[in-house]
Design a protein that fits this description.
The protein is mostly helical. About 50% of the residues lie in helices and about 5% in strands. It folds into two domains: about 500 residues, no CATH class; about 110 residues, Serum Albumin, Chain A, Domain 1 (Orthogonal Bundle), CATH 1.10.246. The N and C termini lie far apart (about 50 Å). The chain binds a DNA duplex (7 and 7 nucleotides) through helix 28.
Length: about 675
DNA sequence: CTTAGGG
DNA sequence: CCCTAAG
């Protein structure tokens, strides 16, 4: 059965086989046909992805600088596609590898420069500038593969930007982060505290967290030939020379395919080639990868001693990621906010922290029992992404973003590696672990690992350890992930067809990722799929693993509706009524590909329910009462109206206010409402 | 493919 | 969000 499925996909077996859940198979089968179109999809392997969240203006600025602004989405999409096409051949030839390596180096340089500055945002901007100039922008664009390269650079910049932001950690973040490093240190009693997860918030101020993310995007054509499971063959060497040995290999197997197929078949609305391409990408990209988490684990296991080590010195680090899916989003946001503040704090002195136990056996300062960590770089796991060659750069970016978001969304954990070895006992103190020694600090590294590892991921994939370790002997990538939930918020408005907020229309095409033209492309690409690079790989992969994976099909990542989206939905429903979800979708969420009309319908359903229950019973991001009132009004109106229609035949409701008094009122009310 | 509903 | 039945 597995094999058959594979054929249906037409992917030549390069991805992990997908095992349908009985009933669904029939449905999907039809969809899969379309998947054949994706045969040519080329696999991009991105090595370091870093916390990028939104596409902020700065990042997009660099990419768009040479191109006119406000280009119609369509044409832009075409252009981007062309670029991509150009690049593809290169990738196939392994030529890209070199380019990426270069970019990586440059990026690092740029980053270093940036990090020397004190103001995060300024840094990001500077970095971009530096990077661009240093990298000889024109060069990148002019040649095949150049486009990709520049894109990569852009990503680097973004990462840099975000990493900088991370550096300024707000108190909240620190609150959760610091803690135990201080406490546990040198004290046996700390046993009750689990590693870095201590709950003490003592000496927050004294602890300065420096998180710097060093992103090194890399595309390796070689990897394409390998199956996801065979990451071991992944050429780590290329990175290692740059000091980044950690990679995270995320592969989405079945999931992506499923998604893709589904999506493709849907929506007639998106018929343009670009649209189709996007759809495909999306499908492929879909984020189910996370379930594959077990792989991530492997990453951590791998090398801890990457080039970054020198950077890890004293300073404390604290991160705490929450896993609960429900809160993941919020948490991430907090994380960012907090981080961004740290930098501004300027230096906090280690002294301040040192009021603790006196056991000064530490390195330089005997009196300071505290171990300070300075995390210079956090490695991002190796990501394997496969997108159609016709995919646009923008879609690729979106895909990557999506993948990262997915990872983040699932929650992340920090892994501690000492001399390349993962320290698994959370109850051990730093002293006990030997982390208090300066020498060891240099060999200490932190890895972000998807929480999913611990969860379902493992179950689905089978024995993660065997898989991972076996596959990546060379040095496994570690997976530091930076979270960023900002994306939703930022893009939100642009994704909506009819943003409630007038301001949204003022996108600066030049730099803003929110640029409508860009968004059009991006939304579709949201889903990332980690795919094995080559066709051959599949054959190599053990069947058992395949099947396991396929069964793990994940569900889409949860994406709570924002108030803005709710507003748009309410407005659309007020105008169109219930029962016309496709129209609602087209009207208000055409650009929000992650929202299907079914999603909208479901959301409306929940909104109605929410509006009926007491505020205390409501959960999640609070929806303004005003909106809920409108929901009830519209619901009541349309319920009644529908009945009327049924009885008296179809009466197309236009915009006539007379027919919909309650709606009218609601609309008026909404206009006065200020959307955030 | 869309809707409508239950899960 | 997912899954299905139905149109």
């Amino acid at each position: 059965m597995v094999s058959r499925k594979r054929l249906d996909y037409g992917f030549n077996g390069f991805h992990v086989p997908f095992i349908p859940k009985g009933p669904r198979s029939a449905r999907r089968r039809g969809l899969f046909k379309k998947a054949n179109e994706d045969d040519e999809a080329c696999a991009f392997e991105l090595l370091a992805l870093a916390g990028m969240l939104l596409q902020e203006s700065e990042s997009s600025a660099s990419s768009n600088a040479s191109e006119g602004n406000h280009r119609p989405a369509f044409s832009q999409g075409v252009i981007e596609q062309e670029k991509l096409d150009e690049v593809k051949p290169k990738i196939t030839d392994n030529i890209l590898l070199g380019s990426f390596g270069e970019s990586q180096l440059r990026t690092e340089v740029a980053m270093q420069n940036c990090t020397q500055k004190s103001v995060p945002d300024a840094n990001a901007a500077d970095c971009v500038q530096q990077f661009i100039s240093a990298d000889n922008n024109s060069d990148c664009r002019g040649k095949a593969g150049a486009a990709v390269k520049s894109e990569i650079c852009e990503w680097d910049n973004k990462f840099q930007h975000y990493s900088n932001r991370l550096v300024e950690a707000p108190e909240n973040f620190r609150e959760s982060c610091d803690v135990n490093i201080n406490n546990g240190f040198g004290q046996e009693k700390e046993a009750n505290n689990s590693g870095f997860q201590g709950s003490n918030s003592a000496d927050r101020s004294s602890v300065k967290n420096q998180l710097e993310l060093n992103m090194s995007p890399l595309i390796d054509s070689n990897s394409n030939a390998k199956s996801p499971l065979y990451r071991n063959s992944f050429p780590l060497a290329s990175y290692s020379k740059h000091g980044n040995g950690n990679k995270l290999g995320i592969r989405d197997d079945d999931e992506k395919f499923l998604r893709c197929n589904k999506v493709c078949t849907k929506s007639k609305t998106f018929r343009s080639p670009q649209r189709i391409a996007h759809r495909r990408i999306r499908k492929h990209l879909f984020s189910k990868h996370w379930k594959v988490a077990p792989n991530l684990k492997d990453w951590e296991l791998s090398r801890s001693d990457m080039g970054a080590q020198p950077h890890y010195r004293k300073r404390k680090i604290c991160h705490s990621f929450e896993r609960s899916e429900h809160k993941a989003r919020v948490k991430r946001r907090k994380f960012f906010d907090r981080v961004s503040r740290v930098t501004s704090d300027g230096g906090f002195s280690s002294e301040s922290v040192s009021n603790s136990p006196e056991k000064g056996m530490n390195m330089d300062n005997p009196k300071d029992p505290h171990v300070k960590f300075s995390i210079k770089t956090i490695r991002i796991p190796e990501l394997y992404i496969e997108v159609p060659e016709t995919a646009t750069i923008g879609s690729l970016k979106s895909t990557i973003m999506e993948t990262v978001m997915t990872i983040l969304g699932g929650g992340a954990h920090v892994g501690v590696l000492l001399q390349g070895k993962k320290v698994r006992d959370d109850n051990r103190t730093l002293v006990q672990t030997g982390i208090s020694c300066k020498e060891n600090l240099d060999n200490l590294s932190f890895v972000l690992e998807p929480s999913s590892l611990l969860d379902s991921g493992a179950a689905c994939v089978g024995d993660p350890s065997s898989q991972c370790e076996t596959s990546q002997p060379a040095g496994s990538p570690e997976t530091p992930v930076i979270d960023s939930e900002i994306t939703d918020t930022l893009h939100e408005s642009s994704l909506l067809t009819n943003p409630v907020n007038p301001v949204e229309s003022n996108h600066d095409s030049t730099s803003s990722p929110t640029d409508p033209t860009l968004d059009k492309e991006t939304p579709d690409c949201r889903a990332l799929v980690v795919v094995p690079a080559s066709t051959d790989a599949l054959a190599v992969v053990p069947v058992s693993q395949k099947s396991k994976r396929s069964e793990c099909a994940q569900r889409r990542t949860r994406r709570p509706f924002s108030v803005t989206e709710v507003e748009a939905l309410v407005q659309a429903v007020e105008e169109l009524g219930t029962g016309r979800w496709r129209d609602v979708k087209l009207r208000a969420f055409e650009n929000a590909d992650h929202r299907t009309y079914v999603d909208l319908k479901d959301k409306w359903k929940t909104l109605v329910h929410t509006a009926k229950i007491s505020p205390q019973q409501r959960r999640g991001e609070p929806v303004p009462q005003e909106l809920l009132d409108r929901v009830l009004a519209a619901h009541a109106y349309w319920s009644q109206h529908q009945a009327k229609q049924n009885g008296g035949k179809t009466l197309k409701i236009t915009e006539t206010s007379a027919e919909r008094p309650s709606i009218e009122a609601a609309v008026v009310q909404s206009q006065s409402l200020v959307m955030v």
